[in-house]
Amino acid sequence: EEAVFLRKKITLLRAFSLLIGSMVGSGIFISPKGVLKNSGSVGFSLVVWFACGLLSMFGALCYAELGTRITKSGGHYIYILETLGPLPSFLFLWAEFFAIRPANSAVVSLAFGRYMLEPFFSPCAAPVPAVKLVSLLGYYMVLTLNSWSVTWSARLQTALSIIKLLALALIIVPGMMLLAQGHTENFQDAFDRQSLVLDKLPLAFYAGMFAYSGWFQTSFVREELVRPERNIPLAVIVSVITVIVGYMLTNISYYTVLGTQDVLASPAVAVSFVQRAFKSLISVVPVLVALSCFGTMNGGIFTFSRTLFVASREGQWPPLFSMIHIRRHTPLPAVMLMFPLVTAMVCIGDIYHLMNFFSFSRWLFIGLATLGLIVHRHRHPELHSPFKVPLFVPVSFTIICLFTVAMSFYSDPVNISIGCTMVLSGFPVYYLIIHRQMSSRCHYLTHKLQLLLEVVQQEIKTY
Questions:
Q1: What torsion do the CA atoms of 134, 357, 206, 55 make, to the nearest 10 degrees?
Q2: CA-CA distances (angstroms) from residue 331 to 22, 28, 265, 339?
Q3: How many angstroms separate the CA atoms of 349 and 50, rounded?
Q4: Which helix or strand (DSSP H or E) is residue 418 part of?
Q5: Which is nearest to 304 in space by CA: 333, 279, 273, 271?
Q6: DSSP secondary structure string, 192-211?
Q7: How far apart (Å, rounded) are the C-alpha atoms in residues 419 and 390?
Q8: Which residues pair with 225 in a beta bridge?
Q9: What single-letter DSSP state applies at residue 317?
Q10: What is the architecture, at CATH level 2, of domain 12-457?
Q11: pLDDT by residue (tens digit) across 318-347?
Q12: 100-110 confidence digits (pLDDT tens)
């Protein structure tokens, strides 16, 4: 009886929680190993962590301006569509659906399963089949919640954001206490140039940027934000600064307690840290870390479903996925679409190979989105934006993103080539399908699924 559309239910606190909950997840607990391995030393790894934080701030500021200029939800997809055109936006959508998002979700899910089982099998490693089973159960729980209620998904994200900050505090405090007592032996020869391999640095940045990834999440739900012109920039700036400080202190704590070889040998760095520094919390911290990963899964499903929803509304995805449940007011078909691919990648994937696999495509299109900001400014100088960053911010961010993407071909040619092939495979799909009308059989199938799922088209556009 009432209009069916996505309500504005995301306040400033929920936007801040969405960003914190998406950034502070599996990354800070698994990426230190990848950053250290590819940067070569403790000192250079800390430089990479800070540089990734600074780069994330630049990207977040660019997206904050895009979010005030372009009033639709959809994140990277809608920004590329509105600034660079339909072909690049469809290539992003294609790569995001078949490579970036399922691989990213699989990485976070596997981290969730590993940390959740760690207390039960310590000091031995948890069996791989058990880790994958628990990973899938956690992912399906989040999937169900996002299908059920937007409000409860947002409330869960707020609660888990507090747990995430608590998990970081439990690592930072004992590490800082030991550092204050003079335990600096692991920082001797911190900048060992002999172990630095320049062509591996892009992979170190990928691992670091994976830990920070999530600063763009508010752009996916722009139409559901309360007072977006004010709340997007405010939430972005406060959350990224909070995460930079937290990550730097967490890594210093890791290196205060664990040596280089300990970090490289550990499958779960946070657990190794607690085993060495704070044995009384050996069963608590892994569970907190697992809950952090759970929050990241929740934020990822919450935001990516809006990308599919908007792409379907723009005519570049089947129309079923722009429909909303008539009672729950959730984009149910878009939420449910990802689970087969994520299930497959969890079953066959490895965390670090998956990370390199999806990072190429993700940073390529993020660089194109900020390039689109420069293009949009040039095309529409008359457009007033309530939030505007200096031009050198999008220019420098775009150059760094595209340069890192180009360099990664030398660092990991196999995984990067697979990711590149995945992007290029979207070309024939775009020209053969997107410009053609769907057959009557496809419309018939959409109608039957619409009745089964109890979903309808959005009646009111809120942008």
A1: -100
A2: 20, 30, 42, 15
A3: 29
A4: helix 413-424
A5: 333
A6: -GGG--GGGHHHHHHHHHHH
A7: 32
A8: 10
A9: S
A10: Up-down Bundle (1.20)
A11: 888 878 777 777 777 878 888 888 888 888
A12: 788 778 888 88
Q: Which amino acid is at 108?
A: V
Question: What are the φ/ψ torsions at residue 383 (nearest 5 degrees)?
Answer: -75, 125
For the chain, the first-to-last Cα distance in angstroms comes to: 22
Query: What are the angstrom distances between the C-alpha of 114 and each of 341, 370, 413?
Result: 20, 35, 28
Taking only the tens place, the pLDDT of each residue in 122-152 is 777 788 888 889 999 989 988 888 888 777 7
| Residue at token pair 């990370």 | 355
Phi-psi region of 363 (alpha: psi -120 to 50; beta: other; left: phi over 0): alpha
Helix 86-95 and helix 413-424: axis angle, to 10°? 130
DSSP string, 330-382: S-HHHHHTTHHHHHHHHHH--HHHHHHHHHHHHHHHHHHHHHHHHHHHHH-TT
Say if residues 292 and 160 touch (Cβ distance below 8 Å).
yes
Tell me if 387 sits within 8 A of 65, measured CB to CB.
yes
pTM: 0.78
Token readout for 417 is 């080539």
Tell me which H or E stretch contains 147.
helix 128-148
SS3 409: helix
Specify which residues 457 forms β-bridges with. 323
pLDDT value, residue 6: 57
For every residue of 240-303, DSSP letters joined together read HHHHHHHHHHHHHHHHHHS-HHHHHH-SSHHHHHHHHH-GGGTTTHHHHHHHHHHHHHHHHHHH
Domain parsing of the chain, residue ranges: 12-457
Query: Which pLDDT tens digit goes with each residue over 382-431?
Result: 777 788 889 999 999 999 888 888 877 776 777 777 778 888 888 888 88
One-letter amino acid of 348: I
